[in-house]
Automatic annotation (TrEMBL):
Keywords: Transferase. This is 4'-phosphopantetheinyl transferase. Belongs to the P-Pant transferase superfamily. Gsp/Sfp/HetI/AcpT family. InterPro entries: 4-PPantetheinyl_Trfase_dom (IPR008278), 4-PPantetheinyl_Trfase_dom_sf (IPR037143), AASDHPPT_N (IPR055066), P-Pant_transferase_sf (IPR050559).
Length: 232
């Protein structure tokens, strides 16, 4: 399944559930979590290396959002594993993609954030990638697209203008990012200029003004088998 942002996309805006799931997602299903990074009541569950990373932020808002995102990630994974958040052990791939350490790989996850919003995707089928972006125009948008997107995607973007072009760009960009994150590769890996490298992907709307994308190394569950949770 190629990313087709011109087609209707799943809109989760009013579908996020407040209760937590009883267990990890079953095969053929997907859990998505919406996290408000500007909540003031987050408890801090950071490892020493995450505390070090947090200390490198010079601006308070990015720092507090990083702390909130990592704390939420540990809380959610701890819920699935029935273990305290600080007991969740993570390891990192060559390009920084986190995964659970010391476990057989039954739970796959990926976290993305833009502004105040973070989205966590969880699957028990195979590695997953997720990206989220606030829909807003960027400088040199067409130049970026010509360099980063496939010829087919660039051709579909170039004739558009205004908000239609911005929305199309954001959908294509999140799709590209999600595929890279699924594979654990860097954004400039050239093989993904062709959509053949990671054909399984789908866009969605997490909330008004944002777009998101999911990518998996096998067929993505139908959207009726997605369940959205709001981290509380």
């Amino acid at each position: 399944m190629m990313f087709q942002p011109e087609s209707p996309v799943a809109d989760l805006t009013n579908l996020w559930l407040s209760e937590r799931p009883e267990s990890a997602p079953d095969p053929g299903t997907l859990h998505l979590w919406s996290i408000d990074l500007d909540r003031s009541d987050f408890r801090h569950y950071l490892s020493q290396d995450e505390l070090t990373r947090a200390s490198r932020f010079t601006l308070e808002t990015p720092k507090s959002r990083f702390i909130a995102g990592r704390s939420a990630l540990r809380s959610i994974l701890g819920h699935y594993l029935a273990t305290p958040p600080l007991s969740v052990r993570l390891k990192y791939g060559e390009h920084g993609k986190p995964e659970l350490a010391g476990l057989p790989g039954d739970i796959h996850f990926n976290l993305a954030h833009s502004g105040h919003l973070a989205i966590l995707a969880v699957s028990c089928d195979c590695p997953v990638g997720v990206d989220v972006e606030k829909i807003q125009s960027r400088r040199y948008m067409l130049g970026i697209a010509e360099r980063m997107f496939s010829a087919e995607d660039f051709t579909s973007l170039e004739p558009l203008s205004g908000s239609a072009q911005t929305r199309r760009f954001c959908h294509l960009w999140t799709g590209l990012e999600a595929r890279h994150k699924c594979l654990g590769t860097g954004l400039f890996t050239p093989t993904l200029a062709s959509g053949d490298a990671m054909p399984c992907g789908e866009n969605f709307t997490p909330e008004a003004g944002f777009c998101g994308a999911i990518s998996m190394q096998k067929e993505i569950p139908k959207t009726e088998n997605w369940t959205g949770f709001k981290f509380q």
